[in-house]
Write a structure and sequence with these properties.
The chain has 262 residues and is mainly α. The protein contains 14 helices and no strands.
Length: 262
């Protein structure tokens, strides 16, 4: 193999310098802790390695920022896949991973990227903990909730959801209300508005784009529902909350066509 010579040389150098890689099982235990939602174990593991973060780790790049970035991307990839295996939604897990990689890409300080490791791991772990609590809900309701979140752009109806999970509409409606404490219609509205809030705060998508992406029948319908839930229009909500984004990234501006949403 073409890499044999280089591999043997590097192994020789590592042996002579007494370099020992971190045990594979220790790394697996960390990812298992994230997958199981054990936030305390994740914190304890990070605190153990924080002071000597690079001990037992090879060099992926001579550039310190690239070196830690490569490690961060690898860690995000593994955490994402472990959590998907544990039941976290495929799209949500990969998108969350993308968010953290993009955040790390904006940093040019090794210590800040190392700190982001813990934030990322705890975020995934908290979601896994919540998921396990939600798993007490019946399979049919869980399947219904998953479909709602994966298809917020559609016109979601009780019949559509009942057909998807294979239950009678009336039975699903009663079962859903009993297990979640709200009607299917209320749950769909909450899911759409929560998603809209996040997009208004943390993205540059216009209110028009958001309303279309979330399957509202019209711009006015989106404004009406949003105002009913939050007491203010989407435009006002963005003006109140978008300052956080502006502080973190001064290049962003409120989309010009948001003037449609007064």
């Amino acid at each position: 193999m073409k890499t044999d010579r280089d591999l043997n040389y590097r192994l020789y150098i590592q042996r002579n310098y007494g370099f020992t890689r971190s045990p594979f099982e220790r790394e697996l235990n960390l990812y298992r802790s994230v997958r199981s939602g054990d936030t305390e174990a994740v914190k304890a593991s990070f605190n153990r390695i924080r002071k000597n973060f690079f001990d037992g780790k090879g060099t992926l790049s001579e550039d310190p920022i690239r070196n830690i970035m490569y490690r961060f991307v690898t860690s995000v990839a593994l955490v994402t896949r472990f959590c998907i295996e544990g039941g976290l939604g495929h799209d949500a897990a990969y998108t969350l991973g993308d968010i953290y990689i993009q955040r790390a890409d904006k940093l040019n300080n090794v210590e800040m990227i190392i700190d982001l490791f813990l934030e990322m791991q705890l975020d995934f772990a908290e979601r896994m903990k919540t998921l396990k609590k939600e798993n007490v809900i019946s399979l049919h309701v869980r399947k219904c909730i998953d479909y709602i979140y994966e298809n917020l752009h559609e016109e979601l109806t009780l019949k559509l959801l009942a057909d998807h999970v294979g239950l009678n509409s009336s039975y699903l409606s009663k079962l859903f209300s009993k297990e979640t404490g709200m009607s299917i219609k209320s749950f769909i509205t909450k899911a759409k508005i929560t998603t809209a809030e996040n997009l208004l705060t943390d993205s540059e998508f216009s209110c028009l784009d958001i309303s279309l992406a979330l399957g509202f029948s019209s711009q006015s319908a989106f404004i009406s529902v949003f105002r009913k839930v939050n007491g203010i229009t989407p435009k006002k909500y963005r003006e109140m909350h978008y300052l956080k984004v502006l502080e973190e990234n001064g290049t962003k501006k409120i989309p010009e066509n948001d003037e449609l949403f007064k």
